[in-house]
Amino acid sequence: MKSTATFLAAAVAVGSAATAAAATPATPTPIVDPRNGVPWERLDKHDAMLVIVDFQEGLYNLARDWDPNLYRDAMMAHSSLATVFPMPVVLTTSAETGPNGPMPQEITDMYPGAPVVRRQGEVNAWDNADFRAAIRAANKTQIIVAGIVTDVCTAFLARSLRAEGYSVWANLEASGTTTKEIRDITNAALRCAGVNVVSLFAIVCDLMRDWRATPGLVEVLPWLDRHMPAYGMVARAHRAAVTAGEVPPGADRLPR
Question: Which residues belong to any copy of the Isochorismatase-like domain (predicted)?
């Protein structure tokens, strides 16, 4: 009887401990890059590639979470990144002979030699064997991506790439979807999956890293003037001040 009582007491103790452990939430494990042990990985222009997903003339009309003029500019800016920073490019479309429509010619003309994977049915680009082969053939570990729509074309692919061990940078401004609420919840989920959800300017600056680099000021500034005029006009104003400007009365008393 004594041994039975001891056994029961031990069983109750183990059960109580298990119940307490189950009731205590596990400490979240921070997303850490296994290659360097830190939670922030920088873009490396020598190890990065650009992926353009389902920027199609029909699907463009679903990108309603951005101003349509700004979004078109963001699409073109994302697509042109590899014209400034030489890196592999893969383009893909989804059922382009139907309502989704073709990719704008302005984009395909940028990279006449790049692979264009025309998916006939796969929603997630990673499900297409030709697309997977094109990504693997580039032999890069960092992938910059954007697409229409954010919650499907960008998100499905970004998660699949993460599952395959790639580092992913999702261009926040160049992915569009039907509502701002869907965009926000999707990007939050992507961040939880270890995807870097960042701005176009962040991508450009991380690829460049130093204005004195190549590509650097000489190459990037004209690109910014075209695709990010807020910064382009800063440079123009500085040029005008240096070449033809003068200090008006009172301005010379302003703090430096």
Answer: 49-198
How far from chain centre, in Å, is Cα 88? Answer: 16
Q: Which one of the listed residues 153, 155, 203, 208 is annotated catalytic? A: 153
Q: Report yes or no: 91 and 114 within 8 Å, Cβ to Cβ.
A: yes
pLDDT in tens, 177-221: 999 999 999 999 999 999 999 999 999 999 999 999 999 999 999
Pairing of strands 48-53, 89-94: parallel
* 193 three-state secondary structure: coil
Task: Identify the three-state secondary structure at position 246.
Answer: coil
pTM: 0.82
d(CA 97, CA 173): 26
| Distance separating alpha carbons of residues 53 and 33, to the nearest angstrom | 25
Q: Is 205 a catalytic residue?
A: no
**Which residues lie below 8 Å from residue 182, measured CB to CB, with a gap of 6+?**
65, 150, 151
Largest CA distance in the chain: 102
Between the alpha carbon of residue 56 and those of residues 106, 108, 109, the distances in Å are: 11, 11, 14
Which amino acid is present at 125?
A: A
What does the alpha-carbon distance between residue 169 and residue 177 come to, in Å, rounded to a whole number?
18
Contact present, 119 and 98 (Cβ < 8 Å) = no
